[in-house]
From TrEMBL:
Gene3D superfamilies: Acyl-CoA dehydrogenase/oxidase, N-terminal domain (1.10.540.10), Butyryl-CoA Dehydrogenase, subunit A, domain 2 (2.40.110.10), Butyryl-CoA Dehydrogenase, subunit A, domain 3 (1.20.140.10). Belongs to the acyl-CoA dehydrogenase family. PROSITE patterns: ACYL_COA_DH_2. Its cofactor is FAD. Pfam families: Acyl-CoA_dh_1, Acyl-CoA_dh_M, Acyl-CoA_dh_N. Residues 123-223 form the Acyl-CoA oxidase/dehydrogenase middle domain. This is Acyl-CoA dehydrogenase family protein. Keywords: FAD, Flavoprotein, Oxidoreductase.
Length: 385
C-alpha cells in the first residue's frame, strides 16, 4: 500500500535527519545512555538544523509552517536508528502549542526566537506527586502579590521530562481554590524562568526506559513569577490543557507505531544474520510467521497513525479519535516489540542491542499522556456508554 501522507519536502527532510543521526547521534549514543541524558549542546545543533522552528512563525525565526508531518518524520527516523533526541520532543510537541495558542505578541517576541535557536529549552510541568492523571487535584499554588507585579509560586512537580536542561517551564498552578461546582476551576499557566530564586531541580529520575531524556522532580519555594509570564487568562488553565491533549496523544500514537516498525527491522536483520542448527533463524517457519503477523499489525497501526495525522493537520482530530489512535498504536507496539525481542533470544535482553532499549522505551507509551484505561474511558464516553 502506497502512503500518501508525505510529499517531497518531507522526504528531503527525512534524508537530512537520517544523515544527521548517523553523524551526530549514533557515534555518541552509548555515552548519552550511560549518562542518562543528552548533552545540553545537542539542542543547539537541533536548533541550527531548524528542527525547533518548523511550526514557528517566520517573524520569530521559524519556517512558518502549520503541520505535524515533519515531527512524524522525526519519530520514524529516530526509531529506525534506535535513538532518542533527549527531551527535545517535549520542547516542540508539548510546549510550543501553548506558546502559539496563549502567548501575547510581547511574549512571543521574548520567547520564540530563543525557542527556535535552542537557547531556551522548554518543558511542561503538570503532574504532581500523588495526583497522576487527576490534574484537577494539583496542590501547587501561585498567589498574586499585594502590589500586583508578580505571583508567588509554591509547590512541587514530578515526572517532568526535559526538566533538568529546561530554561523555561510551563507550570500549572492554582491561582484560586477549586469551587464546589467545579474542581477544575482556578488553574493557571505560567512560563517560569528556571533561574528564578527558589526554583530547584530535585532528583533526576532513574527511569526504566527513555534513558537519554532527562526527567526530574521540580520544587518551587516562594518563586517570584512576573505577571508578564502568565500564559493566557488566569483561572482558565484546565481548558487550555485539554485543548492540546489531542496533539500530545497523536504524538505518542505515532511514536509507538514508529517504534513497532523499527522493531521489525531490527528483528529481521538479526534473524537473517543469526545461525542456529546450521541454518539462519529467518529460515524457520515460526520466524516467518511471527514476523508476518507483526508486519500485519504494523500495517494497520500505520494506517491509524497516518489517518490521525491528517485529521490533526486539518484541525479535525477529536479527543475520542486521538484516544483511539493512542490506545490502538501503543497496544500494537507493545505486542510487536515483545515478539521481536523474543526472536532475538537471549541477546534481546542485552542493552547493547537496540531491541532491548526499544522494549524499555516503549513501555511508558501506555502510561503517559493518559493511561490506556483513561483512553478506554474517553472512547466509551464518546460511544454514549
Amino acid at each position: 500500500m502506497r502512503r500518501t501522507v508525505f510529499n517531497e519536502d518531507h522526504e528531503a527532510f527525512r534524508e537530512t535527519i537520517r544523515a544527521f543521526i548517523e553523524a551526530e547521534v549514533v557515534p555518541v549514543y552509548d555515552e548519552w545512555f550511560a549518562a542518562g541524558q543528552a548533552p545540553r549542546d545537542f539542542y543547539y545543533k537541533l536548533g541550527e538544523l531548524g528542527v525547533f522552528g518548523i511550526n514557528v512563525p517566520e517573524e520569530f525565526g521559524g519556517a512558518g509552517l502549520d503541520t505535524h508531518k515533519f515531527e512524524a518524520v522525526l519519530y520514524e527516523e529516530t526509531a529506525r536508528a534506535g535513538v532518542q533526541f533527549g527531551g527535545s520532543g517535549v520542547h516542540v510537541l508539548l510546549a510550543l502549542p501553548y506558546l502559539k495558542m496563549l502567548a501575547t505578541e510581547d511574549q512571543k517576541k521574548r520567547y520564540l526566537p530563543k525557542f527556535v535557536s535552542g537557547e531556551e529549552m522548554w518543558a511542561l510541568a503538570m503532574t504532581e506527586p500523588g495526583t497522576g492523571s487527576d490534574v484537577a487535584g494539583m496542590k501547587t499554588t501561585a498567589k498574586l502579590s499585594e502590589d500586583g507585579t508578580h505571583y508567588v509560586l509554591n509547590g512541587a512537580k514530578t515526572f517532568i521530562t526535559g526538566g533538568v536542561h529546561a530554561d523555561r517551564v510551563i507550570v500549572c498552578a492554582r491561582t484560586s481554590a477549586p469551587s464546589a461546582e467545579d474542581r477544575r476551576f482556578g488553574i493557571s499557566l505560567f512560563a517560569v524562568d528556571t533561574k528564578s530564586e527558589g526554583y530547584s531541580i530535585g532528583r533526576k529520575l532513574d527511569k526504566l526506559g527513555l534513558r537519554t531524556s532527562d526527567t526530574a522532580e521540580l520544587a518551587f519555594v516562594d518563586v517570584k513569577v512576573p505577571v508578564e509570564d502568565l500564559l493566557g487568562e488566569e483561572g482558565k488553565g484546565f481548558s487550555y490543557l485539554g485543548h492540546n491533549l489531542a496533539s500530545e496523544r497523536w504524538g505518542i500514537a505515532f511514536g509507538a507505531y514508529a517504534q513497532a516498525k523499527a522493531a521489525i527491522r531490527f528483528a529481521q536483520q538479526y534473524v537473517t544474520d543469526r545461525t542456529v542448527f546450521g541454518k539462519p533463524v529467518a529460515s524457520f517457519q515460526n520466524t516467518k510467521f511471527e514476523l508476518a503477523a507483526c508486519q500485519a499489525e504494523v500495517d494497520a497501526a500505520e494506517a491509524v497513525a497516518d489517518r490521525a495525522l491528517e485529521a490533526l493537520d486539518a484541525g479535525e482530530l477529536t479527543p475520542a479519535e486521538a484516544a483511539s489512535a493512542k490506545l490502538f498504536c501503543t497496544e500494537v507496539a507493545h505486542r510487536v516489540i515483545d515478539r521481536c525481542l523474543q526472536l532475538h533470544g537471549g541477546y534481546g535482553y542485552m542493552n547493547e542491542y537496540p531491541i532491548a532499549r526499544l522494549y524499555a522505551d516503549n513501555r511508558v507509551n501506555r502510561i503517559y499522556g493518559g493511561t490506556s484505561e483513561i483512553m478506554k474511558t474517553i472512547i466509551a464516553k464518546s460511544m454514549g456508554l
